[in-house]
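User: I'm new to structure prediction. If I give you an amino acid sequence, what do you actually give back? Let's try with this one:
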Amino acid sequence: MQALCAPHDGEPEGGANAGVETLLDVTRDIILLIDHEMKLIAASRAARGYFGERAQPGAPLVGLAASVAMLLLNEAAQRVMASGLVETAEYAAPFAGRTLSVTIHPCDTGAILLVHDVTVIDSLAAARAHAVAETEAMIATGMMAHVRLSLRGFLEAPVVALAVLVGVEPQVLADARFTTLFEPASRATVDAAIEAAIDQQMSRIADAMLLVAGARPRPVRLGLSPIRRGTIVEAIAVAVVVR
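Assistant: Good question. You get back a string of structure tokens that encode the predicted 3D arrangement of the chain. For your 243 residues, that looks like this:
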């Protein structure tokens, strides 16, 4: 932030704004740097990708999109530069059905605008809420449980639903190896399914006999799917369904 707020009157190699653009481009955020005449000094790579060719040095802020929202944003930036107070507000994005949250910081050269497309955040929150409700509804039947396994095959919290199926207190399952919950004859099948889900990065199914405290083993079907971050498998999601 200090580097962005510093004066940019010099002429570094590649142009007056080369150093600023290089600094902005190492971030993943949509950032706009404007001067007191409400024109762009520089824009991050993410900003150029979001607003297109209009996000060029020297372009007017209101020219980023043909919308009333940009006029309101222009007025807000002027207020921030006049008052020296940070301001945050939401505006309609230049794309239908989307909303931008913009935080405007005053600086010596004008103002810095930090932009976030909150529609993405809202959509992810809605999808997560739906997934949680769907999972809890299935667990409420008492006929299935969802668990997460580490790459070493150990259970990770929460394990309450699985504890109900097994007939033990949840703390008994804390950091337990998943395969120990099955009859010895089923353990090789479960292990193979876990390894295949990790190595092949694909969903797998397996049938096994789940041990139950004080009762006969219960036949279950396992659905296993890798939890990935990019191309890296971080853990395994497992659905345990009573057959």
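You can read the tokens as a compact description of the fold. Here is one thing that stands out. The longest strand covers residues 215-229.
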